[in-house]
Design brief:
Length: 331
């Protein structure tokens, strides 16, 4: 497989929204930002989805369909009012709901914000654009007071926070919530990078081979490093949304890497390989005294069973498993 060099690492979903809002503010065009503050059950659009809307155009999405159309029109009506204030609407997607019925019947519910922007918001929107383009940390704050705020300090807290009520407050960390670290930059690592680049993951690819062309030319990863697998634990930042996928050159390097990865508090650790190779890996680690509960955290062989054979098919099977994992309801 010949790697392509024409792609670039993915940008956060919000970047086109804030770029559209920024261009509108600079041009003196009235613009509003729509945001899904919370989403529960079966609902169009998830928490954090955004749009920017003017009288004639828009960017982004809050889920599509009739609900999005309704809120685009609500935003445009609000923009026609002088000094418009933000509006939050609770939407229940059930025909039998006693109030706040959305007209949908998918059974979930959402809280949606329509936030008209004003010329005073221009400096904050400009900083948002810069930080999202550069992958810089920060936290966006929205509130009933009707103004944007941006905290540029590194934030290790939850990705989203929300307090509802008359004095509602919402915040979110900038950039990607979910991060995938692929250990092994070969053909499947490249194919998986390409697939995950469309799925809102921050991507890191690690390999111990300095001259590996599929690693060097991978255009999808935000970070690529040549590392010693004996030092792998120092290369990965553990967190509640860190997905680590091990697919190194072979059994020996898998074993070296897995010894390191098992020391980290990872919510997801998957290993690619045949059932026989996985059994041998786990048996070796048991004889080395690795506790059974730690080994039980390993997802292996990784990937949904779809009879995949090519690197691209294997990548799809792994990506599908990651989607299932991150979208699973809380236990």
């Amino acid at each position: 497989m010949t790697p392509t060099t024409t792609a670039t690492p993915p940008t956060p979903r919000d970047l086109p929204v804030w770029q559209h809002a920024l261009a509108s503010l600079r041009a003196g065009v009235a613009v509003a930002v729509l945001c899904v503050l919370d989403s529960r059950g079966s609902s169009p659009g998830r928490q954090g989805f955004k749009m920017s809307v003017t009288a004639t155009d828009l960017a982004g999405s809050i889920g599509g369909g009739i609900m999005e159309h309704k809120f685009v029109e609500k935003a445009r009506a609000l923009l026609r009012q002088p000094a418009a204030e933000p509006v939050v609407r609770h939407q229940i997607h059930r025909a039998d709901a006693p109030a706040d019925r959305s007209g949908l019947i998918c059974s979930g519910e959402q809280w949606l914000l329509v936030l008209p922007l004003h010329p005073a918001d221009l400096p904050v929107v400009q900083r948002l654009d810069e930080r999202l383009r550069n992958g810089a940390p920060g936290r966006l704050h929205l509130s009933a007071a009707g103004r944007l705020m941006l905290d540029e300090a590194t934030d290790a807290g939850p990705h989203y926070t929300l307090a509802l009520g008359p004095a509602w407050q919402y915040s979110e960390r900038l950039g990607f919530r979910d991060h995938a670290t692929i250990v092994g930059g070969g053909h499947v690592g490249l194919a998986l990078s390409r697939t995950l680049a469309t799925l809102e993951f921050g991507l890191t690819v690690l390999d111990n081979r300095p001259d590996l062309n599929t690693h060097q030319l991978n255009p999808y990863a935000h970070h690529k490093r040549v590392v010693r697998y004996e030092d792998l634990a120092q290369e990965i930042t553990a967190g509640p949304h860190q997905y680590v996928i091990l697919m190194s050159f072979g059994y020996r390097t898998d074993l070296v890497a897995l010894r390191q990865l098992l020391t980290l508090p990872l919510p997801y650790l998957g290993v690619m390989g045949s059932a026989s190779k996985i059994a041998e890996l786990l048996a070796t680690l048991r004889t080395e005294g690795v506790p059974a509960d730690r080994l039980a955290r390993v997802r292996a062989p990784i990937g949904l069973p779809i009879h995949s054979r090519t690197p691209e098919e294997i990548a799809i099977s792994i990506a599908a498993e990651l989607i299932r994992e991150r979208n699973a309801p809380p236990a």
